[in-house]
Design a protein that fits this description.
With 170 residues, the chain is α+β, with helices and mostly antiparallel strands. It has three helices and six strands; from the N terminus they run H-H-E-E-H-E-E-E-E.
Length: 170
């Protein structure tokens, strides 16, 4: 193999390591380092899921809970770091479990990945935390310097979210 190409085993290991590192950075509140894992043109979105129609149409409304680019993500990080992000004051303590990692395809230096996310969040002195379940569909750029997130679409298992806010990154 030449030119930084990876075989299937190496690619799976690189993808798994990327997702695990990302989860650790977010759990530890290392948001600036997390931003470094994203390309400048990243699309980070959560489509609204409609539970009253069939699965093949439930994401077709074109509506989003959020649809951010890197500039918006930088602003969100700056707000979190400023102490003025009241939805996250005090900051949530989180534990992310990323599993069911499936490489869906690879072409032209881009790998398409599907993964399951279970995120536990606890805030302040609340007695009970909350859990967020989602499927993430990612596109990762493959380069000599490692993988970078090109896009992420986060599909919540819930139609009506029971979490109090979405002030965290998924």
């Amino acid at each position: 193999m030449g030119g930084g190409e990876m075989d299937a085993v190496q690619l799976r290991e690189a993808v798994t390591q990327f997702l695990a590192t990302e989860a650790m950075l977010l759990d530890e509140g290392r948001f600036e380092e997390w931003l470094d894992l994203l390309v400048e043109g990243v699309v980070y979105e959560t489509p609204i899921r409609l539970g009253t129609i069939g699965r093949e149409e439930e994401l077709a409304s074109g509506g989003y809970r959020f649809r951010d680019d890197k500039d918006i993500l930088r602003l969100r990080v700056a707000r979190l770091n400023s102490g003025a992000g009241y939805a996250e004051t005090p900051p949530s303590r989180t534990v992310r479990s990323v599993s069911s990692i499936c490489i869906v395809g690879e072409a032209d230096g881009v790998v398409t990945v599907s993964s399951a996310l279970i995120l536990y969040r606890h805030r302040g002195n609340d007695g009970v935390g909350d859990t967020i379940h989602a499927r993430r569909n990612d596109r990762l750029a493959i380069s000599a310097s490692g993988l970078k997130l090109l896009s992420r679409s986060i599909i919540f298992a819930e139609v009506s979210l029971s979490t109090p806010n979405l002030g965290i990154f998924l």
